[in-house]
Each structure stands twice: as structure tokens, then as C-alpha cells.
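To the team - flavin-adenine dinucleotide complex, inputs and output below.
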Amino acid sequence: MIELERIVGAQHVQRDAIVGDRVLTGRAAALVQPGSADEVAAVVAWCYAHDVAMVPLGGGTGLAGGAAPLSEDAVAIALDRLRSVRSFDPALWRMEAEAGVTTATIARLARENGLLFPPDPGAPEDSHLGGTIATNAGGPHAFKYGVTGDWVTGIEAVLAPGELVRFGGPLRKDVAGYDLGALLTGSEGTLGIVTAAWLRFVPAPEAQRAVVASYPDATAAAAAVARVLVSGVVPAALEYFDAQTMRIAGDTFPGGPLRGFVVLAEADGSAAEADRVSEELVEALSEGTARVWTSATRPLWRWRDGVSLAVAAARGAKLSEDIVVPVDRLAEAIDATVAIGKRHELEGCSWGHAGDGNVHATFLLDPDDRGQRARAEAAAAEVFELALQLGGSVTGEHGIGIAKAGWLSRQWAPGALAAHRAAKSALDPRGLFNPGKKEP
Ligand SMILES: Cc1cc2nc3c(=O)[nH]c(=O)nc-3n(C[C@H](O)[C@H](O)[C@H](O)COP(=O)(O)OP(=O)(O)OC[C@H]3O[C@@H](n4cnc5c(N)ncnc54)[C@H](O)[C@@H]3O)c2cc1C
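Output:
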């Protein structure tokens, strides 16, 4: 421990710390806050030499327990002192930023310079670039623009046994080697520690228009989503909120209370393009509903950001998962979530990224009722099983972490799993990077 204090300074080492994310915390032998990528490398080298497990920490907004240590001997390595934007070239649409820069800072800098950084996971003021890369986070605009990894052209990381390396850089193309930067992206801190990344941007769209429609049920809404896809227009976002979610959160809907099964689409582009796309969206969404209308986007996204909190507040707590299914199985996944909840005597609901088939399957809980939590966990296991039956995945956004421990081996065939394990043991032969995550 004294050696760690020598590397980062005694004031940046806290012994016996509780660390973690929004769903789970755990005790670590120490919380270490390096002040540079070289210090991260030195800390990793010390841990590797002493067989000490390491848990990287970003903003702690993760929803899978990925940042919670599983052993009290582990050292938690926080990246929050690595917060410099090393370079920003708006004219070249690119930036090099350190792992501790918040997602909101990157999006703001881009916006102020007429650019767009599309990944928009829901806690941008707190989440860090490193954590957002480590979870390959998405968000509503992933439908048109893709997930975080699609905007990363290079990664600087510390690998075992304490080597500071760089894959890619400020290049828009590079196929020289295996795409090891992509391997680190979404690896939940199990292969190494991201210290910085090169990002690319696009010019910000001039205009956005939202289109909202309300349907009687999931089947009608999913048919509307399918018509949008067939229409050939590409909305920037294509979201849904089921009827139960709207019963809870619909009172504060911008423009007045709203009920039913709601689909929200966004058109963007030049003003003329946004108008054209929104008109086509209105047409595609109008069948099967008495009401479809256009609206300003900003109040809608503000309302959408509060949906999760409103649902949690309804009973005091909730258990929420993030399965993803092929988009043509969306209605089945949504209806089954409610049915699974009923079987476990729980109120179930869901909302999510309809265009991506990403369902935030949720069960409402009374925080003081332990029986309910146990039933919700059983219900969540059924939701994961459902995702697999429908040809989907147990996680589309939040990662495996601890919350879904064991499910990767259910989802992947033995051959694929063996390749996954080979990648882990090649990059982390002693299994010291975030042990127990991804695969127990
Ligand atoms: C209100 C809310 C809304 C959200 N909405 C979305 C959404 O729409 N889409 C979506 O995809 N996600 C969403 N998320 C979850 C998402 O995973 C996180 O918000 C975020 O992107 C994770 O970043 P973080 O810095 O907080 O990571 P943390 O929670 O600190 O860590 C997440 C994981 O990454 C690892 N890690 C952290 N930093 C590094 C690093 N530098 N190098 C290696 N590994 C590291 C950790 O060990 C952990 O396993 C939401 C979360 C909240 C609270």
C-alpha cells in the first residue's frame, strides 16, 4: 500500500473504501486515484506484480454492478483525475480526451463547435468517457448513429502487466492489425484500463422534430415501428413506453397528460430534411392510432430522462433489465414482461429503444419487502430466458457486470465462449482485471 501511495501520492489513496455503481457497491482494500496514464500503468504494474485484483471505476453510473469489487482484497482504480481534453480539432471533427472526462463535457464541447457526439446514455453529467467505452453505452440516438464504439477511432489503455499501449488514433481508418480497441470497448474493465480515447464527430444536424403517437397495445405499436422501418426513412431515435409506464409517468408528458402505448420518433437533418422525415414518420405511425402529432424535441427528451426515476418512485424501488430482441419480436418481449411480472405477483412494465429491439424490462418494488425483491430477481431470470428464446441477448446496453453473472455461458455456444475465454486469458493471464465480471 505504501508503494501505491508513492506512485500516486498518499492523499490519492484511501484504504478500505466502499465503491461501486448505481446498483451495487462493495468493499475494496484501497481506492487509488492516479493522476496520469503513466501512474495508471505503474499502479497496474504493482497490482500485477503482487497478484492483486483491480476494479476500474468511472462515474459509477453503471447499471450492472460492474464497478463493485467482489473481493475485499481488490484495489479500485478511479480514473476521475484523468480529465483533460488532450486535443480538440473541431475543423477536423475529432478529439483526444482522457478517460475521466464526462460524457456531457464531450457532448457540450462538440455542440458548441457545431458538431455532434451522438452517444447519449442517460446520466451524462456523471458518466465518464472511460466507463462509457467500457460498457459500449448506447442511448436513444443509437438507432441512427450507433453506440459509443462507433465514435471511437483509437484507444489508449493499460494492459497487463502494466503496459501503456495505444490502438488506432486520430485516424478515420486503420485495418493494419486486429481491432483490439474494439475488443476493449464493452469489455467492462476485464481486459485492461482505458486511459484515453480518440473520438470522431459529425456536423450537428440543423434541426430536430419529434413525432409522437399513442396506440391501444404493444402489437399495434410494434406494427407501427415495423412500418417506419419499411418506409425507408431513418429516424434519429425510435422509442416506446408501454401502457403501464405511461400510467406512471404520463401525467407529466409535455403538452399534457398522455396514456396508452406511446411511440416517440425523432427526425433530424437540415430543416428541410427534418420536415420531410417527420412528415413520413407521421404517415408511417398514423395507422392504428387516433392520434399522431409533431412536437419540439427538447421537452420530450427531458421528460424521457425522468421516466426511469418516476417508475422507481411509484413503489419506492424497481428492478430493471435491458434485454434486446430482434425488432420483429418486440411486441412479444413487451407483453411477456408484464405476464412474467404477474406470475410473480409483481407489477411489470417496460420502455426502451424500440428501433433497436432494446427493452428495459422493469418490476416495481417496495424497498422494504424482501420477498418482493427475491420474486423480482426470479422474474428477471425469466426475462433473460425470454430474451434467449426470442433470439436476443440478455443485455443491449448495461453489460453483464454482476447482475447477469453466468448468463453469457447460457447465451453463447461453447465454441464462441472458448474464443471469449481465450481473449481474456491472452490479455489478462492472471485474471486480475475486474475478476468475476463478464464471466464468473
Ligand atoms: C439514469 C441512467 C441512464 C442510463 N442510460 C443508459 C442508456 O441509455 N444507454 C446505455 O447504454 N447505458 C445507460 N446507462 C448505463 C451506462 O452503462 C452508464 O451510464 C455509463 O455509460 C457508464 O459510465 P460510468 O463512467 O459511470 O461507468 P462505471 O459505472 O463507473 O463503470 C462501468 C463499467 O466500466 C468499467 N470501467 C469504468 N471505467 C473504466 C475504464 N476507464 N477502463 C476500463 N473499464 C472501466 C467498470 O469497471 C464497470 O465494469 C444509464 C445509467 C443511468 C444511471
